[in-house]
Amino acid sequence: MALSAQQIPRWFNSIKLSSFINATQLTKHCTRRGKTLLHGFSAQPQMSSDNCFLQWGFKTYRTSSLWNSSQSTNLSSQENNSAQSTLLPSMNEQSQKTQKIPNFDSELSLEGLDDLPPLSPLQPVSEEEAIQIVADPPLPLSSFTLRHYVDHSETLQKLVLLGVDLSKIEKHPEAANLLLRLDFEKDIKQILLFLKDLGIEDNHLGTFLSKNYAIFSEDLEDLKTRVAYLRSKNFSKADIAQMVRNAPFLLNFSVERLDNRLGFFQKELELSVKKTRDLVVRLPRLLTGSLEPVKENMKVYRLELGFKHNEIQHMITRIPKMLTANKRKLTETFDYLHNVMNIPHHIIVKFPQVFNTRLFKVKERHLFLTYLRRAQYDPAKPNYIALDKLVSIPDEIFCEEIAKASVQDFEKFLKTL
Predict the structure, then answer these.
(1) I need a labelling partner for 309 at 20 to 30 A (CA). Which of 182, 196, 330, 359 fits?
(2) Does the structure show a pLDDT above 70 at 333?
(3) In terms of pTM, does the model score above 0.85?
(4) Can you tell me the distance from the alpha carbon of 106 to that of 25, in angstroms, rounded to the nearest whole number?
(5) Which of 109-123, 147-161, 193-207 has the lowest mean pLDDT?
(6) pLDDT of residue 145
């Protein structure tokens, strides 16, 4: 049986204790009345009376044959040895005694070590034993990063394998603490299976969970109820999967909130049920985001830009992002199109994607066409240029088909601006 580093000192001490008891019993029988052992048991071997001496050093051991041979010594030798017991032994005696010390590893039996009591955590250890102890660094009581806990948390390890970005989660201490308390098999696995059954592919799970880590705090039955509600509103399974991918927090909202949002857009925009459903499928953030930008933009289109209600309906069903677009960008784009390029409302309504284009790109191409005297946006006149082609096609096609110039000419012109 192999001994651990901590068991060897305990075993060795038990051997010394048993040898001490045997030696004490032997000396009681061997010493004369009135004689005592001098100096007890020291690190160096000492001679005692009646030659009933047991050599004590780093290893103490005597066989019964050694004791029998010591009884044959004469009385005079015993007295001389007793008189010299306080003196240091000679070099020859020391060398002889050293040679008689048995091999500790080969002669001591390992029997009985199994009967030793288990080691106590409070048992002191020697300096040599302490050096051999290798302990993992303790986990910090608090940390700004999850990397200290990954090696000790099966949940974090499996989330990393799924592609979850822990650097995003650790920015939110409440979310990080939540993950550290969750058990993967009991708390997380069932949510993952639910998402996969919903239609979230494996390669999208990591991105989804990096954004919506709070889904692990939701009750699974509540999530199923919200999906059932969307299905009752004739959203297909593919529609729901698309909505959840594009708006990861969608299922974190209650059925009451989802129902109120759908009702708001249907009433505010005066859309049919089908158009309302198509609108939120294309931009599901309408169900999860704030309604204030939506209400503000509706006022801008109607009061500041002068669009009619049916024109607003047409534009937002074509480009749903117009409901949440930046107010300043909307007004600047419309001002340039209507007041600089002289494009009327009904033409802009036909090409609402112009509001999704960067204004500087519209300016560059319009100025180049004006320089070439080709800036003609009236469909009733020759050489008409549609707004969608003006803003959507690449520079090479724009120069070749619309401007009738080379890309080099366009780049030279831009340097003059």
Answers:
(1) 359
(2) yes
(3) no
(4) 26
(5) 109-123
(6) 54
What mean pLDDT is predicted for residues 149-167? 74
Residue in the structure block whose two tokens are 């919200």: 226
